[in-house]
Amino acid sequence: MKYRITFVKEGITYEAEEGMTVLEAEIAAGLKPDAPCGGRGKCKKCRVHIDGKEVLACQTVIHGGLEVETLHEEVKSQILTAGYGRKVPFHPGELPADIKDPLLAAVDLGSTSVVAYLLDGCTGEQLSVKSVLNPQRQYGADVVMRSSYALEKGADILSSCIRRAVNELLREAAKSCGRSQEEIVKIVMVGNSCMHHLFLEIPVDTLVLAPYEPRVKEALTLKASDYGFLVHPEAQLLWLPNIGGFVGADTVGCLLATDMDQRERMTLMVDIGTNGEMVLGNRETGLTACSTAAGPAFEGAKITCGMRGSAGAIDHVYLKDGKLEFHVIGDGEPQGICGSGLLDAVACLRRTGAVDESGRMKETYYFTRNVFIEQKDIRELQLAKAAIAAGIRLLCKRKGIRTEDIEELLIAGAFGNYLDPASACAIGMLPKELNDRIISIGNAAGEGARIAALNTQEFERSKELAAKTEFLELAMDPEFQDVYVDELEFPE
Ligand code: FES
């Protein structure tokens, strides 16, 4: 039996099968709802109005015709596109001979956002950069939820939605500089192992269940048209290699962008997203990588008033005369709080004594009547920051060094770009002795993809980099649990 579901605000009607949830109907109708918990009824971000009542779309089963008023706005997040700035000679290799002015593309496929860079295939000049939120967020905020969705319902839904989005992004990028996507002859992609597998429709079972390893690690050279790209018929699709676990091609991109294996100084590179991937080492010691499930707290999911870093988000909080003051993106009324704001706020609440060392809060803290931080949010942040801190400690142990021996701490990714290092150190997410050694390196993963598109030798070097980077599987480390529990507390 089918029922007519009308999405009033969008003016869209959809014929839904009986038994579907309203969230499933929204997705099937082409809307882009936010569903960070993947429809498990936990995040409360999928609220809609039906018959004047507020309900969760993911928990509302269709047994008749409905008029649904969605509450979500199309989120315009700040997406980071600038990188570290490493220059490489332009040497793109052999390109199809039948095209006079070829284009090259580099794509950073993040769990939260996707960035595409369009490059001139004759000069290497960057012509355009476009970005979009990853549409897979409808199926869960983090890689674990999306993998579970793929295991339960098949990976093809997640693959086709992301392939469509990347294709559309390249079309827009080409159009913005008066070109056609059919002129694109090479696409280089990076993403974590899960994004890699979901894009290529490779089963993710071995990633989320033991042995927690990607099925495919090696760098790939494929035919772009086989993956739905409407580009030049001979265009190649190149993927940088994965390292191990969730440490994937995006981390290899960061290593390329920072020349990590050539550095003399002992360097820690941390890419903080829904997963925290980190690499430690230098030219002499070699590189060791690991990833920790930081969870999506830093991106606003699972936080009661959490949101991404977009207009209306409290992104910075500071103390003035003993009171918390805040800054809102876009300077309007606060709608919620994003990761960097949450970190600052908790650092301030620790300083005022409103949150104790164990994380216990005296009372809910209200920025406004509708935007607040409560006990459960502090607990979520503790879980996320402890995962990062434990990863750093165990990497140092593996290398036989102390955290104070780290000479440079490079923070990659959007969250790293906006966070205040002092707050990250104050809550114990990053070692406090490294406070003045922290350097933000922007979207280094995207930059790595760009470097590999511009220079074929760099693409070859990415294979060598991945092969020689040791992977530390924290899930198998008997010490992880103890160190993790240890790191849950806030520093004094
Ligand atoms: S509560 Fe419905 S998607 Fe999370």
How large a portion of the residues is in β-strands, by DSSP E?
15-25%
Question: What's the assembly state of these chains?
Answer: single chain
Q: What integer value in Å does the Rg equal?
A: 23 Å
The name CATH uses for the topology of one domain is Nucleotidyltransferase, domain 5
User: What's the total count of β strands?
Assistant: 22
Output the CATH class name of one domain.
Answer: Alpha Beta
Secondary structure category: alpha/beta
Bound molecules: FE2/S2 (inorganic) cluster
Instruction: Specify the helix fraction band.
Output: 25-40%
- Overall geometry comes to globular
The description of the largest β-sheet is: 6 strands, mixed
